Amino acid sequence: MKSLKQYRKATVLVHQGEDRDPATGAAAIPIYQASTYHHSGGAPGNFDYARSGNPSRQQVEDAIALLEGGVRGFAYASGMAAIGSALSLLRSGDHLIAPDDLYGGTYRYLTMILPEQGIEVSLVDQTDPQRVEDAIRPNTRAILLETPSNPLFKVTDIRVMVEIAKRHGLLTLIDNTFMTPLLQRPLQLGVDVVIHSATKFLGGHSDLLAGLSTTADPELAKRLKRFQNGFGAVLGPFDSFLLARGIKTLQVRLAAAEKNAQLLAGRLKDHPAVADVYYPGLPEARGRKVHFAQATGSGAVLSFTLKEKEGVAPLLQRVRLPIIAPSLGGVETILTHCWSMSHAAIPAETKQQMGIGENLLRISAGIEDVEDLWEDLSEGLRDTG
């Protein structure tokens, strides 16, 4: 009989760690809304206190480990809790190399929180391996990756970063939210820790807040577990239940959304109001060759710049179908003004230096009919070219 690890991705998504409740045979792991567990005869069982473990949470922790090829998974109260917990592997006095184009919440954590903990951070263009090499110091301990980057879709060669890290004895961590385990599996490429904002594609319905991480290294898994249990920013039972349900449909949702994103990217590229489109699926996309050497798809998120920033306000006022919000990965299309939403935490001057202008927008394609989406966007872009 096959083990779950031997099944193909769509099967693992549906059946996950356990596909029925061992106590009752229920077709879904229940919401175990308990803060503590009976110690029969004074001896603890598999669960003793909810911060340390919960059957609902274990379901999604086992799922991300299976999907990414890790030895153990960890579920947190948010994507930022997952990133912060992964960075707990660093110590005061350490130095971290991170991308110079990245999610605004991560930027805020790296530039405001880590320095208070005595950890230095260098933001580097990781598409140029030499710049990464040049940024390494005696106290450098890790490289944090985000590829494709958010929001400019810079593509970093994961294999090259892993090679540099191994040569210098550094850890590698990656935010794999955009690609999901279906399109990119960094652990197979040698990355040490993979992180997801499960609020996004893995949850998939804009109704929960969650973060996940996993590693293939048993020793790192022990350290991550110790911090998770000690810090306590764990995912609650109800959100775990919602996340497990969302993961089951990831493949069909992502396939539909990716198809829509590809069509929207191509049409936006030819629109007279649009200056640039950033999406790995376009033939002329920078880093396309590297991207498809480490990923099997383009994903369902794209960014584009308007020729005139004055066109942003009319677009946001006119569109009816997209949710205008700082998020992505839902079944509904989400339109984000990066300057004022997803990357609002980054100072204006820094955003300009990164290439994030006031005319930059991001679309997370949903699963609506793409013709309805395009008609809506076209109306929003009317008279802005």
Can you describe this structure?
This protein has helices spanning 9-15, 55-68, 79-86, 104-116, 129-135, 158-168, 180-183, 218-231, 237-248, 250-269, 288-294, 312-318, 348-354, 370-380; strands at residues 72-76, 95-99, 120-124, 140-146, 171-175, 193-197, 211-215, 274-278, 301-306, 323-324, 334-337, 360-364. By secondary structure, it is of the alpha/beta class. It has two domains: 4-248, Type I PLP-dependent aspartate aminotransferase-like (Major domain) (Aspartate Aminotransferase, domain 2, 3-Layer(aba) Sandwich), CATH 3.40.640; 250-380, Alpha-Beta Complex (Aspartate Aminotransferase, domain 1), CATH 3.90.1150. A seven-stranded mixed β-sheet has the order 1-7-6-5-4-2-3, with helices on both faces. Strands 8-9-12-11-10 form a five-stranded mixed β-sheet, with helices on one face. Helix 2 packs parallel to helix 9. It is globular. The relative contact order is 0.13. The model has no long low-confidence stretch (mean pLDDT 95).
